[in-house]
Amino acid sequence: MRRIFPVLALAALSIFGALHTPAKAQQKPLRVVATVSMLADTVRAVGGSRVEVASLLGEGVDPHTYRPTRADIARLSSADLVIANGLHLEAQLDETLKALARSKPVLFAAEKIPQSELLADEDYKDRKDPHVWMDPKLWSIVVEAVRDTLIERDPAGRAAYQAGAAAYLAELSRLADYSRKILNTVPKEARVLITAHDAFGYFGRAYGFDVEGIQGLSTESEAGLKRIEELVTLLVSRKVRAVFVESSVPERNVRALVEGARARGHQVVVGGELYSDALGAPGTYEGTLIGMLDHNVTTISRALGGDTPLRGLNGKLKAGT
């Protein structure tokens, strides 16, 4: 009996110690700064609770012309990982990002897409169109690049990142199928998309639309009178019924198209506001990439005569979007 007590006591002490030993501290989330909101939303979807994500550029901010502040530089420098679109989208940030990449992990996500899949920039022959998020299937390559980079930085989260990416890729595939279905209901002669700047090239290629922008791929390019006249002639000759403004680009040039067509006896309406270089307001459905693209394709289809669900793919759009 004398030998049993010490054994029992030792066991009790072991149990007591296990109950009171501090648990291993949970790993802090990976701090990620994404340049644009489309990327920030993607990182959140893939990374879940293992990442803490901030978007450098917010709602309605034009990435083509945005110049970084000292506070931006500090945020980028303190991040564990920086994710940019690349392809010269963040034109004024290019040098900063390249310098940062010498000492910190920086992913230029869109540059992981094969060159053969990218559209050319007609204004700059040595550049590619950076607006790759307009095609959900193309954006899937970006999702995979984000997944692989997060795994590289945080190997312990491999299973979580793989699961997050798989779920998000399934959402993008479902969105692509929906987009094709409703855009195919737009009469073929009406499949002309005219917007403030040329951000919808990948959309046009994916869904069979002729796309024209008043300005070029960058909003820094000027919209001359000649270009306005060319597009007015196109509106009249093809009997285009609607043109579109963009959330991150002033609408004055689009209004000039409407007035120019009216002067020639052709009525054109503004078919709605599209999201081009930034998501909608944070906390809204349109503030996610899925919601942004759902809004765009639903708005375009409805304005150009397609058969379109009232509230879009997931029933979350505002009525009349």
Structural overview:
The chain is an alpha/beta fold and 321 residues long. The protein folds into 2 domains: 30-179, Nitrogenase molybdenum iron protein domain (Rossmann fold), CATH 3.40.50.1980; 187-303, Nitrogenase molybdenum iron protein domain (Rossmann fold), CATH 3.40.50.1980. It contains 10 helices and 8 strands. Helix 8 crosses helix 9. The model is unreliable at 1-26 (pLDDT under 50).
Walk me through the topology.
Blueprint: H1 4-20, E1 30-34, H2 37-47, E2 51-55, H3 70-78, E3 81-84, H4 94-100, E4 106-108, H5 136-153, H6 158-183, E5 192-197, H7 201-207, E6 210-215, H8 225-237, E7 242-246, H9 252-263, E8 269-274, H10 289-303
Parallel strand pairs: 1-2, 1-3, 3-4, 5-6, 7-8
Helix pairs in contact: 2-5, 2-6, 5-6, 6-10, 8-9
Briefly, what is this?
The chain contains 10 helices and 8 strands. It has 321 residues and is an alpha/beta fold.
User: Roughly what is the average pLDDT, rounded to an integer?
Assistant: 89
What is the rounded Rg? 25 Å
Rough outline: globular
Q: Distance between the terminal alpha carbons, to the nearest Å?
A: 82 Å
- Structural category is alpha/beta
Number of strands: 8
- Percent helix: 40-55%
The largest sheet is: 4 strands, parallel
Strand content: 5-15%
The number of domains is 2
Low-confidence stretches: 1-26
Instruction: Provide the succession of SSEs.
Output: HEHEHEHEHHEHEHEHEH
The largest sheet has its strands arranged as 2-1-3-4
CATH-defined architecture of the largest domain: 3-Layer(aba) Sandwich
**Tally of DSSP helical segments:** 10
- CATH homologous superfamily assignment of the largest domain: Nitrogenase molybdenum iron protein domain
Top-tier CATH class of the largest domain: Alpha Beta
CATH topology descriptor of the largest domain: Rossmann fold
